[in-house]
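pasting input
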Amino acid sequence: MTDDILNVRGWVESASQFLAEATVGQSRHWGFVDSVAFFLTELIMAIVIFGAIMNTLLVLLWMERKLLGRFMDRRGAVTSLRSLWVGENGVTAGEWWNQLPFGVGKPIGGINRALNRIAGNDHELEAVRRVQNRSYHGVWWLFPGFFQNLADGMKFLTKEHMVPEKSDRFVYEVAPFLIIATTVMCFTFIPLGPHFFSNNSEMSILFLMAVFSVAPLGVFFAGWSSNNKYTLLGGIRSAAQLTAYEIPLLVTVLSVVVISGSFNMIEVIEFQANSGVWNIFLLPLGGLLFLVVMVAEVERIPFDMPEAEAELVEGWWTEYGGMRWGLMFAAEYLRTYAACLLFAHFFLGGWEAPFEDTIPFISMVPHVLWVFLKAWFMFIFFVWFRAALHRVRTDQILEFGWCYLLPLSLVNLAMAAALRLWVYDGVAGEWPILVPILITSIGLALFVLLAIDEDPEALAAQTRPYSVQTTDAAGPGQHRE
Amino acid sequence: MAKELSADQIQSAAEALVGSVAEKFTGSATAEVRHHTGGRRKNAYVYIDVEAAAWRDLATWLAKSHKVDHCSMITGIHWPEKADATWQVVAHLMRTGVRNPGVVSGRVHEIKVDIDALVGVDVPLEFEISMTLAETREPSVPSVADIWVGADWNEKETWDLVGIEFEGHVGMRRVLLPHDSPTGYHPLQKQHKLRYHDFNEMYDDAQGFGRKPEDVGRVK
Amino acid sequence: MAEMWISMGPQHPMTHGLWTLKVKVDGETVVDTEPDLGYIHRGVEKICEARDFTQITTYCDRLCYASANTWSHAWIYAAEDLLEVEVPERAEYIRMVAVELQRIASHLMWLGAYCPDVGNLTGMVWCLREREMMMDLLQELGGSRMHYNFPRVGGVKRDLPIGFAMRCRAKLKLFLDRIQEYEAILDESTIFLVRTQGVGYAKAEEMINHGVTGPNTRAAGHDYDVRWAHPYSIYDELDWSPAVERPSIKGSDCYDRYRVRVEEMRQSALMVLEGLDKMPGGSETHHESGDPAILGKAPARAAEGKTGFHHFEDSRGESMFYIAGGGEARGKHPYRVSIRSPMFITIPYAAKCMIGYKIADIPAIMGSFDPCIGETDR
């Protein structure tokens, strides 16, 4: 196991051992001391991890809000960056560099103007600059807007809990419970550091996936029991979508397990640490698949048909109000967070710092920080998808999942098996450095080639300024000539 | 510069059509070329005064032989002071010349109309067709919703607001007024007065908020 | 699952206005539709019988609130036909500038609402951002951001403000660049194309028979436009051509209707720039309100028995006003004003277009026809 200065598990273990010996050990059930100590350790660690996750969830929500705003402000790159720390308390909203003494800030102003000119924000006219200037006000020394989401969450506590009259009351109440409980349960299995985990069982990945997959059932319960045609449609769409994407998800996870050799999450991470190559460089396709499938599993744009605002208002959670809705909303972000953490663990080496062996003193940094940084970095992709992409139609989502992602995940699994059996086990007991380099470069090249689609005929005919011919439109008999 | 139909083209097309109407519908319809302004332009249009009984024949003839393809509006006016023409139905039709673009070797080619090539029945033209009915409690004219589907909702609206029935119209119902409006309630008939402008009593200030003692007897 | 009727509306984010679309679905497929309009019927036609011609202009702004200038100008042309008024040329140019700027603003509002319909939240923010620029310009011209009451019988209420031409040119130049951003996020996105291509087929002849005109018909491949077919104003002096799309063999789909409107935005921007250059008297001169250069003489009463009408190219199709004048007794008030709204006729057609597609296509199809309920219900 990697060493870590933040040996939380060790402290908790010794504390609970002490506690158990002091209480149970003195009684006539002294044989159970170890079991009681273990139980206490697991319980406290689970609570600590849950606390850590919930507190850092605020970071995720803050990132979503701010990043989304800045993505939407594409041309205002510099303005948006500047807006992060613009504020009151004597700092002018805007050109804070002018406040620095001795004219020290003038070059910053020059750089700002130059960058704005490059980005096209160089209009002199005040009236036009109006659509380019976005300044935010906040306490300048703390990330502005950080506690907004906490306030939002507290607001939900003040809202009325309404139950529709003709709804199936029991199921209606059980559904959010199912969703949030199983989501929270997932976090027991996710380690945050080499000595910061709650559960280290042999089959932790399997159990995690099983618990993760119970939430679709809760979603369907919610949609059905609300006695509302819209929620019913949303619930059915959700059930279909999430079921369709479970299989590519599990197959992709299986490929990671195959290549790492164990169902135990911690061993997967240790394998990446010991072999020196993160799984993403061996299975880039797997990483991409995992990302896309997870976006569908947590029902974010582009796959948020079940709660598509334009058609179903809020979909399966229309009838919920107050904290029940707040918890389900939090559950969506918790699942996103779990997805990001899992990506970090499965593909990005978990808690291992990049170039851990070569950079000196880097192991002084608590490993939990690397886990969070990687997870937050992956979240940027989630937000990016949300800002840039459109909602895919339900039957197109299902077609995508069954007809494209499933075969790809099987291909990925085959590649993983081949790599593990023939290269790792067969050749050396380690990854020859050429293998990940080759795989990554081929993957990147393919990605770039496939990302450019040109329709030379349409370009020539000048029918469209940007010529993209699509896949055949989904739906019976509707094909574009 | 940009293309534009010239006034002469419209004028000659209008005159040709007026001539054909006179030939075909002597007695039941009178047509003439009138002009309406459009800012600084004066465009010719065809005005036809037709009897209600001959409306369908005229409509069919216009649609089939003269490519009048767009029913812009059908509306009704109630003239209670004229006993012999109490109900007037005005139909505005247009000949637009819109047709499906052709397919050449598997590719559709959009139509960009060449103004100078437009002759005769292809020239876009505006029509105003008016028919009147004498005083009656059940005004009714034939429906043309099967000739132009665009007339369908126009006729619904005319019946809903003015009260003129359209024989042969399938699915007549209230469109702008609530579905459960009283039978026989058609607000654009002149016996329904507008508050405040057609009454001498003060109805616009129901609670009397703005009234002061010196306003007694005054119309506000 | 059995067939069931779902009611979309009257409160629903998709409908872009207050109306109900009852949809009969079999699973996810739409089997039948029934639109239900009239929720914001304000009785404008009846009210107009008791207002004089200048007062009615304010009502017409509020017909389609997203596209106010096109409606008040449609009215004013009809009123000028009734009263037989001659309009000075400079006023025509100023009107054209106002109408085309309004057309851009209206299409931006449409695109800003259409993007979230298909799920793209960023497009909404970008389009509304540019619409702010247009509304600033229209505010300078007309005095308020949405309902301007801009034209008068015989001309316009006031001339171009000082400096307006410079600001207008700067903003439109920026706007023409920004259109490319919209194309980048929409045209280059496979998901958008998959959502809008192949969905909502409609053919030109069927559309015109149903009374659908404007960008919807131009998307189907024929460039009919009221501005050249039934000419009014000074459009022939500008270098423009109607934006027409090349549809597929089965007809025009949502994507074609989207492209037509983007091209129309470009066209209108170029038209305004050209109009500012060609304005008689120059775009920098400023006449006082009431100056004969911008306001012709207009009688207050119509001649006996005269009627007036005008077909106008509104942002959504062909709109029309028909006025029956009242004679001496009612001289200042028209006897009957009849308003033709393109959307009133298009919405039932769009509802028919949806049959056979999925529920998720409903916002895509309905949004692509650009409904505005203010003018529908009057």
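fyi Chain A has two domains: 10-143, 149-432.
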